[in-house]
Amino acid sequence: MYKRFIELKKESILYRINPALKIIFMFIIMLLTIIFNSPLPLGILFISLILLSLSGGAITNLRKILPLVIILMLFTIILWNIILKGKTQPFYIYNYPIFIDVFLYSIGMSLRVSTVIVAGVILLSTTSNEDLNYGFRKIQIPQRVTFALVYSLMLLPALFETISVVQMAQRARGYTIRGRGPISRIKKYIPLIIPTILYLLKNANHISMALESKAFGYSKHPIFIKEYKITPLDIILISVSIFITIMALYLRILGYGVVFHRL
Question: For 197-219, how does the pLDDT look when each residue is reduced to its tens digit (9 = 90+)?
């Protein structure tokens, strides 16, 4: 049995919330990140999610992806400062002009990407694969799309373990992926990639046979083992989320929370 890619926190309060509502919250957070592009509102949203991860027990999983988040933020900031020209008086770093408005916009864009990643980790940390399937079906996501999304999450641990096994097998034969340059290293990864792809193709064939034997997709209304009821807490949370979204749209229409009037 493969371990889950992201450790599940069943003791978390967030784990007991209706999975469909948690997925809706995820979409609302994505919408909020699109509404604003200023670092102030996006920073508030980002910090709020970090605090939520502390209470929800997802901080352990966030630490695992912290290097990725930092790299993405730095890359986003650098990229936007290269491709976008501002209207403010620039200051110079090593003779390269940095515009204040572009710099603030780049920070906002980096927070936008990081916020979505953090929200996704919180969702996966507090929702099992079965509950994700339940939640997607309850918000009317097609059954085949839901299966593809959920099963891809289930296959990630198997994929990484397969890569590790293939790598150890190649090392046992005296093969090393170390090279003198990046191109040489890329070429040396080919013997690792081919067995992994063959494994995925073989596994996909087994999955298709298993699905056909179980008449997958025959019923448009599958029965779930566990059903969730809407609780007063769920109603309060969704009401607050809708109110925040409406207020965010209103503030954006008034011109608040933006550096540039663009997405």
Answer: 787 777 777 777 777 776 666 66
What amino acid occupies position 130? E
Q: Where are the beta strands (DSSP E) in the chain?
A: 91-93, 96-98
Which of 98, 103, 97 shows the shortest CA–CA distance to 76? 103
Helix (H, G, I), strand (E, B) or coil at 232: helix
Quote the domain boundaries for residue 78: 1-127+229-263
C-alpha span between 137 and 11 (Å, rounded): 24
167 within some domain: no
Tokens of 49: 């999610």
Q: Is the pLDDT of residue 5 over 60?
A: no
pTM of the model as a whole: 0.76
In a domain, 2, yes or no: yes
- Count of the separate structural domains present in the chain: 1
Q: Is residue 157 part of a domain?
A: no
